[in-house]
What does this fold into?
Amino acid sequence: MVRLHILSLASEYSVLTYLHSSAACWGKVLRTFKLADIGEGITECEVIRWTVNPPNQVSAFDTLCEVQSDKASVEITSPFDGTIKELLVKEGEVAKVGAGLCTIEVDEDEYPASDEQSSSSPPHPEQEATQSEKLPAEKSQPPAQDPPKPQRRPHPLDPNVPQESKTAFSPNAGNVLAAPSVRHFAKQSGVDLAKLAPGSGKGGRIEKKDVETYLAGPKEPKTSPGAQAPSPSEPAQDIVVELGRTRYGMWKAMVQSLQIPHFGYSTSLDITALNEIMPILNSNIPSRYLPPSSKPSHPPAISPSSFYAEPSPPVLDPSAQFHKLTYLPILLKTLSKAMHEWPLFRSSITPTWSPSSPDKPTVTLRPHADINIALSTPTGLYTPTLQRVDTHSVYSLASQLKRLSHLGRQVPSGLTLAELPRRGGTLTVSNIGGIGDGESASPVLVPGGGVAIVAVGRAKWVWDVNRGDGKGERRLKIAVSWSADHRVVEGAELVAFIETWRSWVEAPQRLIAEGV
Amino acid sequence: MLALRVCWRRICIISFFEGHRLLPSTHAHNPSERPLHTLTSRRMLLLRTLQHAGRATKCLTHTRSFAVSATTRLSVDRSIYVSKSTNPYFNLTLEDWLFRHKSPKDPLLLFYRDEPCIVIGRNQNPWKEVNLSSAENTGTPWIRRRSGGGTVYHDLGNTNFSIHLSRSAFDRNETGQIVLKAVRSLGVDANLNDRNDICVGKDKISGSAYKIVNNRAYHHGTMLISTRLDTLGDLLRVNKPSLVTKGVASVRSPVRNLQQYNPSVTHEGFVQAVITAFRETYNIRDEVCEVEETEEVKSIPYISAGMEELPQWNWAFGQTPEFTYTLSNTFTWGTVTANIHSKHGMILGCTLETSASTLPVQPNLQGLGEQLSGQKYGFVEEDVLVLEDDTRREVWSWLRNKMSR
It folds into this structure.
């Protein structure tokens, strides 16, 4: 008897539990399935037919009913696994969006209670269905919603799914311009076009590549002044790289160089005679220029310092020491000799003059030869100046060049104002031969770079038929390509200057009489 | 098959020889590099040609098998379908099959033309929308389709289009614009009205309807090219103001044919124009797939079941929403007003009231009304009725007549 009584109490209690839909021992709760926003601005639908009836069991995504709105027939599927308890809207009746369609009994732990009050979805941001379609040329925004798919894949019409995640995917914006194929692509990729506006296309149109770039966004390599190459894992993407400081400096300088009317002249210098004396020059490099490893290990038996130890010259920085002499310092020295004969090439346009000033331009002549050296470094292109080349020996020039290249190779660059004076040189030399075996070049002058620039190529052995009484001779030649500022330099003058230079280069013996 | 293979080889050979002409001429500047450069490009060209030929072959085989013999299965992998059948039951079922079986995110386009028939919307009342007596006289069947919307008339001068998309990508206006663009490209100055129908001026040339399910949606519609508009008008004209129905009422509009604006427009021309617009919008490059109504295709269970379902009473009539029909008639002995209440094609109740004062008539008619209850509207099993006297017989005869048209 008692047992029966308890059982009946228990059953009463379970009934109460169901009705009150509160947490119960049996773990079943009643959920109201509300008609969610179907989209397209629909606010109410007529229920045409229920496919289920209480107490049918349903699984998530089973069809519950079919509703009709205007010209659209919509199938509503169940958001839950459970049992149909009650149909709240009968067939033929109209259900408003947000109103309950039916109640489904579910397992509580599967579908924990969330704020059911918030499930009535707000009217869709783009209530387009009732708008009047104007000209077809007008692009109207697609008011579609992409159902979110978090961990447990709630049903698209599950009213308990937070609305934010739904609207976050709506690929629309107030006035986003994009072609239909781009919109479609964006929708498929789950990209909100509003985030991309304005795009790279005409009139701020969003193009397909904008969407692709957005999708690839976090993987874009960071740009640095060195402008590193894009990573090999992204071969197909276009990457936008910012110009580094030096490269942008080059940009600005080259834009300015457009003011200068250039003319060019190329020739080759015969350095066979130079080549013959190189071994002797190399074996007699003054010891202070030699790096410690090249010096003889022990001092000579007889030395001049035994009589009187002259104050030794200042110790040079190891970066300024070299063990092999190249052609370039000799070419620079001979160039300075030619510059001494040609004052024009020791002059530069007075810096205070500018194209906008009303005065006639003036040219400033300097007593010494200052030559710029073009230096291509990891950090960019620089043109440090060798001051007073005519006062330095070939070895000294070689040492300076070595030091400049050492400083330039540093990252960040070790070149300072001492090496890059504002005044600059009057000629610029670019030793391109060190990099490639070219035949000619057309270098570009920049304002402040002097009146002419020469690109020196690579020494090559060639068969010169002009020599050897018609039989020809094997000669070592080096190509040089000049560009000069035609505002200041005449063509004939440049050619004549180059011939002067040639006379020094091709007969280096002259340097002996001049007293190097 | 042989012809095909030869053709394919020819394409290869031509391309191989032509290859060198298509190479850029800048390679001449580097004589030392030329041989390698040429070889690579030619090889690449050959490979590409082979690939293309292979693709074309596959497509041709595919299409040919449909045209000649049904030995291959109908596949949902394509994006553009043109039905060669004019059987409306087949076409509507094909549309539904493609709708349910295509991968949810891929756009799909289908065209079909039907023999003369009337197609009513999913939730419509055939007794209110179709002139049943005219339909019977002309032998025109009427069919309930699966999408919503109103009633339309199909004949071979009307082309139906159907655009299927993922639900998230679906937008009525966007799909409407595709068809509109196509029509405009045919030289007709059309526009979309506020119900997303394509019109020229105030006249409709196309009607649309939609179906939305869990993850997919479609927009399909008619395009009147050279339809018999007189027949259309006749078959869709129903004069039953006293039949009040739930469900969707058709919005009547004056209609015109595309050929009235541009006489050179044809079914093929319209199909091609829509295909072009569709390809542009969704970036589709697939070949068009032609579908024939073969035994092979009809043996697909979904399709055979669907074709069977459409003409059955359960679907055709049984889906009719609730309605009431009030009608009256004057007999020699008095006036009778009948009030029939029906739902899902069944008579829920029928009340018969009469002005006749003679006593036995009223309960007599009441009895008749009760007998009609539970019967199929318009398909009452007569032998069940007890029609002992003339009054009942007269009234019944009148009711039967009224219900059938």
Q: What stands out?
A: The CA atoms of residues 145 and 324 of chain B lie 23 Å apart. The domain at 323-403 of chain B is CATH 3.30.390.50 (Enolase-like; domain 1).
